[in-house]
Write a structure and sequence with these properties.
Structural class: alpha/beta
Distance between the termini: 37 Å
Strand order of the largest sheet: 4-3-2-1-5-6-7-8
Number of domains: 4
Helix content: 25-40%
Amino acid sequence: MTISIWRYSHLALAVSSVVFILLASITGAILAFQPISEQMAPYKVADLDEVSLAQTVRVFKENYPEVIEIKVDANHFVMASVFTEEGDNLEGYFNPTTAEFLGQKLEPSKFFQWVTNFHRSLFLKGVGRFFVGLCSFLLFVIAITGTILIVKRQRGIQQFFAKIVNENFSQYWHVVLGRLSLIPIIIITLTGVYLSLEKFNLLPESKEKHRIDLDMISELPKLNVSEFELFQNTPLSQVKTLEFPFSEDVEDYYTLKLKQEELVVNQYTGEVLSSLKAPMVEVVSNLSMVLHTGKGNTVWSIILGLASINILFFIYSGFDMTLKRRASGLKNKFQRDECKYIILVGSENGSTMHYANAFYKQLLEAGEKVFITELNDYTEFTQAEQFIIFTATYGQGEAPTNANKFLYRLQSTKQPNPCGYAVVGFGSLAYPDFCQYALDVDKAMEFDFEKILEPTGIHDKSIEAFHQFVGLWSSKIGVTMELPQEALVQNKKHTKTFKVVGKTTVAESPDNTFLLKLKPKKTQKFTSGDLLAIYPKDDYRERLYSIGKVDGNIQLSIKFYEHGLGSNYLNDLGAGDKFKAKIIKNSTFHFPVKAPKVILIGNGTGVAPFLGMLNQNTKHNETHLYLGLRTQASFELYESQINELLLQEKLSDFDLVLSREGDACYVQDKLHEDAWEIAQALYNGGVIMLCGSLAMQKGVLGVLESICVENTHKPLSYYQDRGQLKMDCY
């Protein structure tokens, strides 16, 4: 079954029942506080596991001339109905060890009563109960379809609780909270359905009754009630009710109702005259009531309240994602059969649509006739000359929902004219199947079409990478285009003030590289591997730099470019200057503190986060740094820090690889020499981290792939899927 069926089912169920689910969730969240308020009452005065029924019955009979009934409620409060020496009836809470009267029975507040009635039936009596029960069932199905969607997204049930890349607020928290709330929501919905069936008398009733031979009841041997073996061996925590005999007649008896059994007990001898197991329907009903309401358990009540609040968030986030997908829909100015350029889009959550639309509008502004549509709508285009494919990847290298029929349609549909093509994939390097579907599309098209460019992978919706693709494609085709970055970048939000506390000069480095140390004005949580976003022109244009945390401050390593927007802005800053920026969490590139060994591979300014990670390596985890630079002079910028890290044993091994001096080799060459050590590290659960240029990344991944296959007989993707390969390249 395709992902689209599950998604559309999930959405359809949510839309059809949203009003009832909304009301039930709000009232459910409120009612979660009722058991908590009851638990706070001062009537639980003993550990009922340590008090026997015999003790309690004895003290009650000693203190009151007549006892009608003793009960233990869900809160483990002991209730009783007795008559005093003065003949007054006394009902309420009692101390089970002294029989002292503690207070009148708690009655729910009128507010909680009102909310309870509304929650059960919406004040519509039987009709309302039916709809509440139906919506409980629909919410259960929604939870199941949502679970299936998460399994698809996470590439299998084994990865259900694996890390999720935070690409979108609503989508990220919809999945994260969905996983955490799954079990409570399933319990809430199933117990809600069960209780509704019970209210409509749709459950089987037990017809078993006690069978007592009254002629065989004896008064001998007569025992004191405190000597009844049954009462002595029954802790009060297992008791639901104990009904006392109405008279001293031997035919009257105690009726003891336990959680799993009901017994009739001779009031003189303590003999069990009859016993009945509690019907399964009754046991399940009691359990359902406890699980659905949280009565008697403060922790579970809190969980139920949080789950109800999460359902409210799911309603918001689910519709927010749906509206964003619809807002990023495709609209055309020209008919398909009059267009030279055809843009095909595969998108799961709408973000890829956003980029494709921006590209489409720029081609229109360039005076070209363009048609844009989803990959699943691929057909014959009579005037087409160029196809541009923008696609995300879903699950384990699978097609997005609106692209899952494309490869089949591609085989069955032939274009009347020779056509060129280019493929752009969108994804995250945190996933092992980075842009896999885009690669599959590229491979499928190369037989019948002319490849204009090699497939382009866009990591984390990188504006710079997309801009590079647009530049390459437009120059190859001969169309003048300018990337509308303001249409792609969100306006800067949540910026904070940072102060420059240290800076080297560009002139000191032969590679035009400088170090910048920043101190946040206010306390902010960040760690090495996170990103610092700056806005040099105080507009939509954003530049990102990898953070190294050193002595509590941010350290950046920056390559200066004469016309570079970000590097010029940062280079113009001096000690004491302040500016606005924001920290972006990059949890997929944090130092793995539990790994037996960490191998750090970087070149150029990519060493910045590694210097911070090593400074934070206070547990002295085994580490090995491979650093690729051009010359020995290039190393002087980092030499003192690395020597100090080696001296402090925060860095175990270090290899400096120079590409323009000495043996003139690259990092991947050194990795090839150390193939056995690297393979051993991966085999034993070690982690490899890679930061630097995309060119270096490509070469290093090729070497790592061969090392894995030759030495461990497993592909590199096997280790990446296990979180043993982390990358942040640019």
